[in-house]
Amino acid sequence: MDNAVLVAVGLTKTYGTGTARVEALRGIDLTLHRGEFVAVMGPSGSGKSSLLHLLAGLDRPTAGSIHLGGVDLAVLDEDQRALLRRRHIGLMFQSFQLLDTLTAEENVALPLAIAGCSADDASRRAARMLGAVGLAHRRQHRPHELSGGEQQRVALARALVIEPLLLLADEPTGNLDSVQGDKIMTLLRQLVEERRQTLLMVTHDAGHAARADRIVYLRDGRIVDGQRGNIGVPSKTGSRGADATPLAVRYVAECVEWSVVPPPCSFNAVAFVAPCARDALEYATEAEEAA
Amino acid sequence: MNLWVYNLREMQRRPGRILLTFLGIVVGLAAIVATRLTLSTVDRAYRDLFEGVAGKPALEIVAPGQSGFAADLVSGLEHIRGAQAVLPRIQGAAALVSASGSVAVPVLGVDRTGAADWPVREGQPLAREDDALLDPGLANSLHLRPGQSLEIWAPAGSFHLRLSGILQPSPVSAAAGGQMIVLLACAQRLFNLPQRINSIQVLLAEDADPTAVHTAIARCLPAGLMVQPPGMRGTLARSTLLSAEQGLSALSLVAFLAATFVILNTFLLNFSERRKQIAVLRSLGASQRQVLYLLLREALLLGLAGAGAGCISGVFLAVGLNYLMQKFLGLTLPSMKLSTSPFVLAALLGPGVSAAAACLPAWHASRRPPLRELLPQWAHREEALPCWPWQTGLFLLVLGIVGEIVLVVGGLSDTLRRHLLIPVVALLLVGGVLALPLVFLPCLRLLGALPLRLEGRFAVQQLARYPGRTSLTSGVLFLALVVAIAFGQALRATLRDLQHWYRQTIVADFLVRGAMPDSSFTLAPALPESLAEELRRSGAAAVDYIAFLPAEVETQQVLVLARTFAADRPLPLDLHEGDETSVRRGLLAGEVVLGTGLAQHLGLHRGDRVNLNTTQGPCKLRIAGTAVEYAGGGLALYLEWETARKLLDPPGVHVFLVSKRTGDASLGAALHAFCAQHHLLLQSNADLRSLIEGMLNRVSGALWGLMILAFAVASLGVVNTLTRNVHDQLRAFAVLRALGLRGGQVCRIVVVQALLLAGLSLAPGVLAGAGMAYAIQRASAAWTGSPAPFQIDFRLIFGVCGLAMGMAVLAALAPARQAVRLSVAQAIHP
Q1: Is the ipTM of this complex over 0.90?
Q2: Residue A101 touches partner B, C-beta closer than 8 Å
Q3: Which domains does chain A have, with CATH numbers?
Q4: Which residues contact A230 (CB under 8 A, 6 or more apart)?
Q5: A22 touches chain B (CB under 8 A)
Q6: DSSP track, B197-237
Q7: pLDDT digits (tens, 9 = 90+) for B320-349
Q8: Rounded to two decimals, what is the model's pTM?
């Protein structure tokens, strides 16, 4: 826990009252360590986005605590959470959410301008970050002049320019084709490793989730399979999903869905695509032993 | 990158809307700047006319009716402590004859010592008794050069003077439309004042206490003379302008209010459109205060730019207004002085109003939780209308109604009533706009329940979906309707009353005078009474005469209309209290007839007594009756000619009223020949009526112009709202088009929205407008005493309603075109 960036305990979020009451999250415990890449998966309505919004300080939990860098977000007011986001949280959205009237460089510099950085310093840092995501040559272009993948890279640069403690990505590949999505994932993985960036990503895509160090699976507002906050058990080789290629994972998912026997593969690949983690775990173990 | 870049980019993004907002600010401020500049110019003109020696502190001693008094009084005042100089003067008006007609010219008679105060630019100073100096503007306009002969008509008759020199330009003489300076002896001849003067100017020492000097002088004066600041004689003239001033001020307020609501509506639309962007900023760490200041900054920028352009436009508008006022007043106005106060006011109001209008939308925008805007399920939710606007509106309406009741029956002084009328009207207008949703929205819901065609259903749905935006837009239209109907009614009622008064009082067939006076009768050249006999010899059945004399009643400056009343003709008065027989008897017995405005002001009625300051001192006169009178701004009274001669010693006759015998067609020609020979001004009754009506038409034209401006500003709001509505409905339109709806039907949806916005404002607007018209008439009757009965002017109401609908349809054209031209594929899949 000494290098824990985020510790969430007993997170609960309820919307509405009376008969319209909906429990989006029910007592989530989650810890993120420095440099860790965590993917959050689950069916629609499982509470993935609600979890991300709470961790980003965009919403307040009904119960529980969220400590980010030692500060409890749950007790902060709107402006204090904005301040925290300004300094410590980078956000990426599915629909990029770039401002159309600003160029790529200006979009990236926006968080620095909000934080009160000088114009020159903000521009310099933004240019550098755009270079890091491979868009230095496009920095004067407006969002509508960029492809979807390029826009998401700009969004990534904007999220990272403040050197956040925590990077939160809400379906970052949701609006991208597979090629562009893969590129974004590669970039994210690279940045996590190079900068020891802590990243939590919500995704529907199992293949992309496979790139994470750890997967958290939500169902009906709870983390599935125990309360430990992770269901991935390291393989005998010690790697943590390095062999769970997107293609393999996808194939396994389809097999599971169609109740077809999957081929031998890393049990991690099976674990996070199966509706029931325990069954998948057993199945995958048997498959490996058979192999 | 700094956040200013974001502000500027956002403003560049919607140039049309920014331009509309900017124009709203410009129009509102231009109206205020123009009104203030014009009114200050007019005020200055009347003040300068009487202040004599410009810039030097002074007092003047005058007699009632500008009658004469002994010149040796001057020596008795020279010892007064604080009096640096005591200057005998004669002041009056004469008709200067020129090739293009006679003009009324103020004449100042000065002694030889005083002549040095009037340096000449060209020619020679005053030397001979028949020398005269002229203002350079007047000399140029009449093509007069030193050495030429001048023919003038004065109370003593027709005279020929020699133009000895042209004066150096000065603000005083320019303000008077030109001035003629003659020696005192000459003036005594012109104005029938042998050994007498009619004014003493007392120049004060630098360190003198004006009050102390005033008191010391007053103690030395014989009965009948009064000491006052030189500009006091302008008070009556200025009071005639009060109604025009109020009308202009009220309309500039309306233009400004309409602009404010348009700005508010625009900012609501702008910030609503940018909800998602603002949510992104908040999610990136911008605090609520940062967002608020960011949005207010845009408003301030617009306000500052609008203030600059408004000031410039206001100056141009003031030039036009000055011209109109000049025609209305019959006075040459001095060149407009660009005093700082209108511009300072505009500089404060522009950004102030813009920021105030943006404050609430910006506050709401900054307070919205970012998550609500970022999640797709919130994207097309319907807007809920908060309660506080209509609650505030009701409160303001109640305040306004209470204020109106107080104005009518509260027994307040005239001055307080005049000052309170505009704020009370503003309360009623703002309250009405804010409370309008209470009426408008239920009507919209009712319409929604009706079996309308597709276009109607869609139009109603869209308007009902954004009640805030819809209410504000209809509110601006409502404002324009109320103002047009209220002020239009008041104006037309006044014009009707004026025409009735005119028919009652100007009953002669011809009018003969030296030159046209100004509208306040301050600059009215007098003619000798003996001319009446010559006019009778031309074949007139009767010759009556009128003189306009400034006097003082109960310390109030008034205009005395001294006239003859022919026994064999109807009494030429629009009586309010008293019958013709008893009033005529009273006038002949030395009683007075008060104008209703004066009677209301003094709180007097028929049978009461009023204190008139005469040449023999204060004199209590019985009031024989009251009559509607517009001269002197209603602060007028009638005296029979002989009574006036005894009490006020009129200098001469200002207007001869000549009546012909029945069937006599030759009198006109005879009078024409007579007047041409003697260089007098002849007007037929029809001429004068068309002159007055022309003047009134110009005034009402200017006021209608301002009202149309208010409608134009309101239509900017409609354009804004419909453009935004079309933008919101693009996807829906695209789907409908994909399903087979024709372009014309889409156009109809937009136009129907405009018609609904205007149409649903009509009923409340007409009712409120008629109510306000009644309230304005009652309130102004409380100080004018004008008892005209209230009538609903249906032609006006239909006309204004038609104008409102027409402007709404015009405003819908551009947004409808945009809706028809949309790309279906692009709109369905953005």
Answers
A1: no
A2: yes
A3: 35-59+77-290 (3.40.50.300)
A4: A214, A215, A216
A5: no
A6: ESEEEEEEPTT--HHHHHHHHHHHPPTT-EEE-GGGHHHHH
A7: 888 877 776 666 666 777 888 888 888 898
A8: 0.68
